[in-house]
Amino acid sequence: MNDPLSARFDVLLESGTPDWLDVHRRARHRSRRVWLVAAVAAVFLAVPTVAIALDPTILPWNSAQRAPRPVVHSFDTMVSGAPPGMNPHLRAGEARTVPLPDGGTVWIAPSATGFCDEFKGVSGGCQQSRKYPIDLTLADDGSVTCGEKAPPAIVLGNVNAQPGSMLQLEFSNGNVSSLPLIWIGPPISAGFFEQHVPEGRRMTALVLRDPSGSIVAKETNMFQSFYRPSPSC
Amino acid sequence: MDERTRAIEDLYRRRYMAFFNVAASVVQSREVGHEVVQEAFASALAKRRQLRDDGALEPWVWRIALRVARARRGDRSPPLDEVGECGLHAPERDLDLDRALRSLAPRRRQVVFLRYFGGLSYGEIAAVIGVAEGTVAATLAQAQEQLLRELTAEEAAR
Q1: Domain count for chain A
Q2: What is the value of pTM for the model shown?
Q3: Per-residue b or e along B67-103, where b marks 16 or more CB atoms closer than 10 Å to that residue's CB
Q4: How many CB pairs lie under 8 A apart between chains A and B?
Q5: ipTM (interface predicted TM)
Q6: Is A80 in contact with B130 (Cβ distance < 8 A)?
Q7: Residue A112's domain spans which residues?
Q8: Domains and their CATH numbers in chain B
Q9: Which chain B positions have a beta carbon within 8 Å of A3's beta carbon?
């Protein structure tokens, strides 16, 4: 059937100015920024190859402050707006606010099988299957660097591991620093981290160790992608 | 480059114009509309590992784009299936249609944008805003009827 409105809308369509390289650069910066957040605090002391295990803080879920209404609503839209098969079955009304050691904030809402989180001003995601020990995001601070110097970055995410596990950030100069983890009790049962990494420090790996020091998981690929030169350089 | 990155790039190159026109209408600005699309695809790239179903890529990116657009408008509270007050991003090009669009309820307006500017099918719109395909068809039919009624009234008033 002929749609009398189609032609009227069609003449209004504009082509815009697509720029894929710009998208790519923004994505790289976003990732970079995430990695940088958590560590600025004194934990960046150079401690070659030896991890500093900070005592984890285990926060009972019900003692955490409730998330503000806009955040609850934002989580709620993940349910109401989810395409078929992607509904995380979040309990948005139970969302909580958790302050992080580096001054950041993460909002968390439990779901049927896991949780979704939103790191204030940076990034968010869902951990539904809990099959990945480390859920890592790297983001930059929005600055463009094309030289050899590593740009400032933010490291953030969560770990699916037993409380007392340690998260270590390794650098190209051989230094290792521990990332403070905030452990949240059931029903979340995960550790959260966010750390800023200053300019000039090139990260190479994020290592998760169990309380005895054995390696549980090690992420390296994301760092290689993160530091790959932008196509615009 | 991984497969999903390639798929996102392909989607961007094929569908930039659709995303741009919808986003520009929601935020009422060509420049900000372009920013919304860039940010949405950058976000999709950064979070691509979170997507569980490759077949749901386009609806997923649309949802991100609508969320970014709402954030740019400063709307943190409206649900995803509503876009708040907005009309054409270049209202001077068709003032009657712009006025008619502004008379629509937010949900109807969103469906209209996704249909006519986004070029999405009923099923695709349903996947983006999370309602049944029949609901999309009904909403669009009501929106079309209201738009035609408003446009007829505008013309009769002259």
Answers
A1: 1
A2: 0.50
A3: bbbbebbebeebbbbbbeebbbbebeebebbbbbbee
A4: 117
A5: 0.84
A6: yes
A7: 22-227
A8: 1-77 (1.10.1740), 93-158 (1.10.10.10)
A9: 144
